[in-house]
Every structure is written in C-alpha cells, then in structure tokens.
Amino acid sequence: MLTTSQATDAAHRIVERARAAGADAADALFVADASTAVHVRDGALEDVGRSESAELGLRLFVGKRSASVSTSDLSDDALDTLVERAVAMAKLAPEDPWAGLAPAERLLHGTPPDLDLDDGGDPAPDVLKTRALAVEEGARAAAAAGKSDGASASASRVVIGLATSHGFAGGYTLSSYGQSATMLAGPAGAMERDYASHSARHQSQLEAAEATGRLAGERATARVGSGRIAGGAMPVVFDRRLSGGLLGSLLGAIAGPAIARRTSFLLDAMGTRIFPAGITVVDDPHRPRGLRSRPFDGEGLPVSPTEIVTDGMLETWLLDSASARQLGLEPTGHATRGVGSGPGVGSTNLYMAAGHIPRDTLIGEIDRGVLVIETIGHGINGVTGDYSMGAAGFLIENGEITRPVSEFTIAGNLKAMFAAITPANDLEFRGSVNAPTLRIDGMTVASA
Questions:
Q1: Do 431 and 309 lie in a common domain?
Q2: Which helix (DSSP H) or strand (DSSP E) does residue 360 occupy?
Q3: How far is CA 337 from CA 59, 94, 320, 395, in A?
Q4: 300 forms bridges with which residues in the sheet?
Q5: How many CA atoms lie within 13 A of 243 on its CB side?
C-alpha cells in the first residue's frame, strides 16, 4: 500500500496540473484501499473476496464556477485529459457566490494529531476464515434450534491524501476490522432473523468472535413467537443498538446546508433548549482509535471535540465552508469529502452522554410500552420533524419485558420526541454514532 506521503503527493500533483490548465483554485483527494472479506455458512467457506483500488478526485474553480471529477486511471495522459475536461465543465457551470476553498487562515498547519488509527495489520484469508467460523459457532451455540444465515470477518486498510492550491497538504492511514453473524430461529414458516456485528480500528480491539456470534443467536431466539400489539399512546424505549439513529436525525437538522436552505425543523433552535436539562451531545474527532476519528476535515481544516448540545441547549450548527459563507459564520471543521464530489457536512464520533438512570429502572417505571430493537423504513420529514417508522421489539408490561412484538409503527414529532427523552446510564462506544438506551414517553404506537 502507498504511504501517506505518496498519497498526498498524488493529490498535490493534480492540483498543480489544474492550476496550470487555467483553474483559479483547486483541491484534490486521493484514496487507496485494500480489503479482504471471508464469508462462511454452516461451518463451510462460502466466499472470499479481495479488492484493491485507488481513486483520485479533483475539484477546481474558475471564478465562482466549479466542477468535480474523479478517476481510477492514474496515468499521465488520463490525468491531463481529466483536468482539461474539468476546466471546460467549470466554465459552463452556473456561478455559485458561496463556492470556494476553505479560508486559508483557518487551514491546519503543523503536525496533525496522532490518533492511532492504523495498526498496520493485513491478516491472511485463513485467519479471517477462522474468525468467521468462530463467530458462526458462537451464534449456533446460542440458538441451538436455529439456522445460520452466515457469518463474516473482514479487514481493510486505507490511505488518504488531501491537497489544496492555497497551502494545505496532509494525509493519514486507517485500518479497519469487522465481524458479524446472522441467525434464523423458530419453527419453519415463522422463523425470525436477527444479527450482531462488531467493528474496530485495531484488530486487538475486536471483541471475542464467540461473543459476537452469541449475541446474534440470543437476539434471534428472543424474537421467536413475535405477535401483534394493541396501539395507543405509550412510552417507547429505543434500545441502544438503534438509539443513535435519533442523533442522526439531529445531525441532519443542524447541518449547515439544511439551515442555509431553510429546510430544517430546527431552523430557529440555535441557543434554545431542544433536549431536557442535563443532556449532552458531543462530536469527538480526536477519539483514539475511533471509527470516525480524523486529524483534519474534508477541506483541510483542523478538528476538535465539539459539544453540540450542552445541558439540553443547542450550541452550534455543523458547517462546511460554503454553508458558513452563506450563513455569515465560520466553518466548524465538519466538512466531509468523497472522491467524486465536493464537500458536504458530517459528524465523526457522535454520541449522547450517558444519563444517571439504570436501563432496568428506565423500563421498570413503565406500566405499558414497547422496547424497540428494529426500525423499518425512512419515515422522517427533515423539514417538519414528523417521524413515523415501522418497528419490531418487545412489549413492556408492569415494568417487565414480556413478549416479542412486530408489525407496528411508532410515530411522533422529533421536536417533541427530543424534549421528552430520558437517557439510561448504559452508553457503549460500539459504532460511529452512539447513545444509551432512550425512553420517550407519549409516542403513538399503532398495529400495522
């Protein structure tokens, strides 16, 4: 695999070509990756996949007009042609008064922070096969009457280089490891499916393969015999395997482009209380070995931990340079970048801080409600905040989780839902967006 210096040099060279071809400004992103994945089923190897790729993305400006292009052909002739076409495209594009690179004075200078994101590993396929088989064995042991729907183990490494025409050049490498299993349980014709997975930056961080499999088997077994639920207004408890999805809705509502377009249900919420007192939401790009940690953002700006919500109060929008200019504000270091497109806005390691109530107490206070472990569909209106999702989970009666239920919907409005959230104290950092178990009283539950 290439080094970070080689990746950064590749990005820098195409930026120089763009300037020589008539671009007023440009930035480029180079990404190379190599990954291996092994899939097993019923104790036998099902598939082994290996992929390697390298892509270069260029964004250039001619005045206030811009174009973005990408290629996997890194030959000199192909890059010359790519630059010529990009300049021609930009000259035909409409003007954008907010377009441009990030402010030069805000760029990251000096040595980027070392976040320990790459362990340098490249496990052989037989090592991954052994791990995948162990994951599946754990799942089958936990669901003795069940059937495996497969297990997998994977590993990858990525090198990233970013360069701009106004003074930034930097890069970093990432390693990533994952394992998962899916199980079916129950009688023929009424089987239930569930899964479990775990990902980490370092191989040594992965939980025991059998633990991931066991969780998949236990989850599938617990769903056997799922029935219907009578609807009504009641508390809904979001299991922490999906409670982070509510933070995803928050993220979309406070992203700079949505605010600039005036298409957010939180448009006028800056500086106001959107969650109950005591709730804190943090975005932390500097988390060591974090799944979304990074030393700089997609425009070359420095990044730092940000309290998005403090004591229930909304403290900031998430801004790239374009949306910041449109709003008359400063970029916040939340620009994201894909190889084939210009910057957007996104979070890194986003989480809601743990509350003070144990999960059992949170559930034990409910006379009748539902614990949701799965949501289905995309029923969120980012403009109004209206929320309606298909769901599956467990009925709560007299403070106890009693039986599995499915084919129901949960509905509300995100403003009211945020204001009614009670977090448990069981936060676990398992993904890139994390939240503890969350209870929201007064949601509408209806049988599908």
A1: yes
A2: helix 359-364
A3: 11, 21, 10, 42
A4: none
A5: 29
How many other CB atoms are there within 10 angstroms of residue 227's CB atom? Answer: 10
Give the integer Cα–Cα distance in Å for 40 and 48: 9
- Model pLDDT for residues 80-112, shown as the tens digit of each residue: 999 999 999 999 999 999 999 999 999 999 888
Of 221, 249, 278, the residue at which a domain comes to its end is 221
Q: What is the pLDDT of residues 200-246, one digit of tens each?
A: 999 999 999 999 999 999 999 999 999 999 999 999 999 999 999 99
pLDDT at 110: 87
Q: Indicate the number of domains in the chain.
A: 2
In sequence order, what are the residues at sequence separation of 6 or more whose Cβ sits closer than 8 angstroms to the Cβ of residue 317? 254, 255, 256, 259, 270, 323, 327, 329, 332
CA distance 309 to 228: 37
Indicate whether 43 pLDDT > 80: yes
Give the domain extent around 251: 226-448
Residues 202 and 264 reside in one and the same domain? no
Confidence tier at 2 by pLDDT (50, 70, 90)? confident
**Domain limit, last residue, from 205, 221, 237:** 221
The reply to whether 194 and 232 lie within a common domain is no
Enumerate the β-bridge partners of residue 372: 238, 393
Distance, CA of 69 to CA of 295 (rounded, Å): 25
Q: What is the CATH number of the domain that holds 115?
A: 3.30.2290.10
- Together in a domain, 337 and 445: yes
